[in-house]
Write a structure and sequence with these properties.
Pfam families: HATPase_c_2. By secondary structure, this protein is α+β, with helices and mostly antiparallel strands. It has a single domain, classed as Heat Shock Protein 90 (2-Layer Sandwich). The protein contains 4 helices and 5 strands, in the order βααββαββα. Strands 1-2-3-5-4 form a 5-stranded antiparallel sheet, with helices on one face. β2 and β3 form a beta hairpin. α1 runs antiparallel to α2 and α2 packs antiparallel against α3. It is globular.
């Protein structure tokens, strides 16, 4: 999303604790326009990515944090969750295995675009969710 088309971008840093997942979800959905047709998807994506940040990164260590970034533009929302790494990305499990570990597959299925970037100091999972503004009337 380019600065020229961006209508609203907000970020929130949260402690890397399980209780922060619901705060991340509430923050993200609160950034959306009224009537956003992808609100439930945004809530699910943020829940999965925030949970991974808390459970599978150094963000879940004592004093750790993660950041949720929500960037809304007409007909789309970008969701990013940045954590403290490690640089290993939790893997998607094949079907037929236990029910845990399928969150990233679900995120990828919901996303119109999905990317994970890693650096020596952390990882950012980014998702874009689109909607048709001509049929919903919801822009940003």
């Amino acid at each position: 999303m380019t600065p020229a088309t961006r209508t609203r971008a907000q970020a929130l840093a949260l402690p890397g604790e399980p209780e922060s997942v619901s705060a991340a979800r509430a923050f993200a959905t609160g950034c959306l326009p009224a009537g956003c047709p992808r609100a439930d998807d945004v809530a699910l994506v943020v829940s999965e990515l925030a949970t991974n940040a808390v459970l599978h990164s150094r963000s879940g260590d004592d004093g750790g944090t993660f950041v949720v970034l929500i960037d809304v533009e007409p007909g789309a929302v970008a969701v990013a969750v940045a954590d403290a790494g490690p640089a290993l990305v939790p893997g998607m499990r094949p079907e037929g295995e236990d029910e845990h570990g399928r969150g990233l597959a679900l995120v990828a299925d919901l996303a119109d675009a999905y990317e994970v970037t890693t650096t020596e100091t952390g990882r950012t999972a980014w998702v874009r969710l689109d909607w048709d503004t001509t049929t919903t009337g919801v822009t940003s």
